[in-house]
Write a structure and sequence with these properties.
Blueprint lengths: L19 E5 L5 E2 L18 E5 L3 E10 L18 E8 L5 E6 L13 E8 L5 E7 L2
Parallel strand pairs: 6-8
Antiparallel strand pairs: 1-2, 1-3, 4-5, 4-7, 5-6, 7-8
The structure holds zinc ion.
Length: about 140
C-alpha cells in the first residue's frame, strides 16, 4: 500500500476514496482542508468545535486551468524536461457545495474538460510514489 502525500487529508480506499474535511458542529459549515482549531469562519456563527467529515466523492467541474509549471514544494519535484503539464480542476462538491481544487488525472488535459462536467475523486501516485487525490471526469 502506498503512502499518502498528506496523511489525514483523505481516506486510502482505492475504490472510493474520500477527502476528509471538518464540519462546524454549530452551523454545519464544511471546511477543507480541516479546520482543526479556532473559530468558525461563518460570520453568523460562534462555533469552535469541529468534527471530521468525509466529503462527497463527486461534484461538478466549476473551473479549470492548465498548469504549465511544477507545483511548489512540498510536491515532489521532477527534472524540468520530464515535467508534463497537467490540468487543475476546481470542483463543486455534490453535497457540501464547496469548491475543492485538485489535479486532474494523468492523460486528461484541459482540451477534454468542460465546465459543468461530472467529476469524481480518485487517488493517483505522485512522481515519488505517494498518493494524492485527483479529479477524474465521469462518463
Ligand atoms: Zn459554524
Amino acid at each position: 500500500m502506498s503512502e499518502p502525500f498528506l496523511p489525514g487529508w483523505f481516506t486510502l480506499d482505492d475504490k472510493a476514496p474520500q477527502l476528509l474535511g471538518s464540519r462546524c458542529t454549530s452551523c454545519g459549515t464544511y471546511y477543507f482542508p480541516k479546520l482543526a482549531a479556532g473559530f468558525c469562519r461563518n460570520p453568523d456563527c460562534n462555533g469552535e468545535v469541529f468534527e471530521e467529515a468525509p466529503l462527497s466523492r463527486r461534484g461538478r467541474l466549476w473551473s479549470f486551468t492548465n498548469a504549465a509549471y511544477q507545483p511548489p514544494e512540498p510536491y515532489p519535484q521532477v527534472e524540468k524536461d520530464r515535467f508534463q503539464p497537467f490540468a487543475i480542476a476546481a470542483v463543486e462538491l455534490e453535497q457540501e457545495k464547496m469548491i475543492v481544487l485538485g489535479q486532474v488525472v494523468a492523460g486528461t488535459g484541459v482540451e477534454s474538460l468542460k465546465a459543468g462536467m461530472a467529476m469524481e475523486l480518485v487517488l493517483e501516485p505522485l512522481s515519488d510514489g505517494k498518493l494524492v487525490w485527483k479529479w477524474k471526469p465521469t462518463k
